[in-house]
Amino acid sequence: MQRLRTHASIRGSVALSLLLGGAWCCSPAGTDSNVSGTGASNNATAGSAHAHAGSGKGLAGSSSLTLGGNLNASTPVGPCKDLECKVPTTCAAGTDTTISGKIYAPNGKLPLYNVVVYVPNAPVEPFKDGASCDRCGASIANPVTAAVTDETGSFVLHRAPADANVPPVIQVRKWRRQIVVPNVAPCVDTALTNPDMTRLPKNKAEGDIPKIAISAGGADAMECLPRRLGIDDAEHTSSTGEGRIHLYTATDNANAAGAGDLSVKAFAPTLNAGAMLPHSTELWRDLATLTKYDIVMLSCEGTQFLPEKPMAARQALYDYASQGGRVFASHWGHVWFAQGPAPVPTTGTWMSRANPAAADASMPATINQTFPKGEALAKWLVSVGASTTQGTLNVIGPRDDIQTINPAVSREWITLDNPNFPAAPKVVEYLSFNTPIGVPEAEACGRAVFTGLHVSNSVEDRVVQPPGFPLECDATELTAQEKAVAFMLFDLSACIQNDDEPPKPPK
Question: Average pLDDT for residues 124-152, to the nearest whole number?
Answer without folding.
Answer: 88
